[in-house]
TrEMBL record:
Pfam families in the cross-refs: HTH_17
The protein's name: Helix-turn-helix transcriptional regulator
Domain Helix-turn-helix: residue ranges: 4-53
Top-level taxon of the source organism: Bacteria
Length: 59
């Protein structure tokens, strides 16, 4: 199932603008382009979230 940037932003608790900045910088979850629209796979969002270390620290 695909999610819109609004859905993902709400899930992550960040503004939609942040998702677009992450896309530009290549640092956030990988979006898909469906026609003119950005969409996200939930599994990609969760995988990206799992790779994030708390407070930028490594274990």
């Amino acid at each position: 199932m695909l999610a819109s940037p609004t859905d993902v932003a709400a899930y992550l608790g960040v503004p939609v603008k942040t998702l677009y900045q992450w896309k530009y910088r290549g640092t956030g979850p990988a979006p898909l382009k469906v026609g003119r629209h950005l969409r996200y796979r939930w599994r990609d969002v969760d995988a990206w979230l799992d790779r994030q270390s708390p407070y930028g620290l490594t274990a």
